Sequence to fold (108 residues):
Amino acid sequence: GVAVQPLAMLLVAIDYDLIETDTLIPDAKSRQLSAGVELKLPLFAIRAGAFHDSAAIDPHWAYSLGFGLGLKMLSVNASVVLSTDGGTSLSSSNRRDLGAALDARFRF
Fold:
């Protein structure tokens, strides 16, 4: 993988597995491509990314969006991950990739 910062406020990262690897699922392999960008503003960071596993049993794309808030003594990050697989409805029972994360840290 590689990450570059073409501008002070922009970070671009990409990672690709050169070989297929075994997974915990019997006879299943994984070969992942991940890419993301982060835009850092004075108090906020906005992030977006994409992920694809070309060797998966059912290859599909998943996407992530997130933001961060960086205050002097508190850092808060939130993100959501979803895929177009299973339709566009967040309540679809066929959706494979759907998740959210929230992280808060105090700085002393």
About this structure: The chain is about 0% helix and 60% strand.
